[in-house]
Amino acid sequence: MRHLFLADSTIDHLSFEDYKSGMVELSAIDRVASDQFNKSPNAINSLNYANLYQQYSQENQLLAVFIEQLRTCEETIISEEDANSYCLSTINGFIGIDFSSGELPTVKAVTNQMSYDLWSFNHSSSLQRLDSVVGTNVKFSNFSKEFLNLSEECQEAIIDLFQRAKDRELVTPFYPDTKITKDVTQSKFKHSVWELRVYSPVALRVYFHETSDKVYLIGIKFKSSTNQSHDINNMYEKLENLLQDAI
């Protein structure tokens, strides 16, 4: 679970109209179900919050309900150090409206859907970020272990290349072009096997199969392998098992 904290310092000084418009953006965020949005005990004691009830409208009522439904944190989190200590992790963030004071790190500032999506990507594990880039996928049983056993630099290289492949906007997101991805399907195969070609920091290949609605992540092999044909056959056998399990 990742925690984000409503930062009182980003809302207390605002006019009521600015407060409302900012809260509309925050309440519209389509968040990951496991992410926890928190508020301090002071959040419902502010003048702007009181005005949501005093200046009654359906919109104001909905904004008040949004704030009320944020989990009340027993501790008032006012700094990144507080958040790190509370979460026992640096993976956390702040939701708010006006972060211009610079008291909180901009990389952890969330004001709307776009900044939330950026925060979510940057503050996810490498495996979560891979899933975010690849999209709906099925992994062979030990694919995640193979990926996480790589150095952080190799993990980042794989994520970056999958993103670069998507950015080409070809027939499919990861369609072979022989540069970033390559078709290594053998004539006897019933299903295609493609490889993502990583050259740095070390040469390795990520084998996968792409359909119209998902990607099958099969396995990872270092390019130094002496028998790539054997590796590809092995990957195809794994793919057949994946496809069979999906039936």
Question: What's the short version?
Answer:
This protein is α/β, with parallel strands linked by helices and 247 residues long.
Give the strand order, joined by hyphens, for the main sheet. Answer: 3-2-1-4-5
- Cα Rg: 23 Å
Q: What number is the mean pLDDT?
A: 94
- Rounded to the nearest angstrom, the distance between the terminal CA atoms is 32 Å
What's the story with the biggest beta sheet? Answer: 5 strands, parallel
Shape descriptor:
elongated
What's the total helix number? 9
How many E strands? 10
Strand content: 15-25%
Q: Share of helix among residues?
A: 40-55%
Q: Would you tell me the structural class of the helices and strands?
A: alpha/beta
User: Could you give the order of the helices and strands?
Assistant: EHEHHEHEEHHEHHEEEEH
Which residue ranges are poorly predicted, with pLDDT under 50 across at least 5 consecutive positions?
none
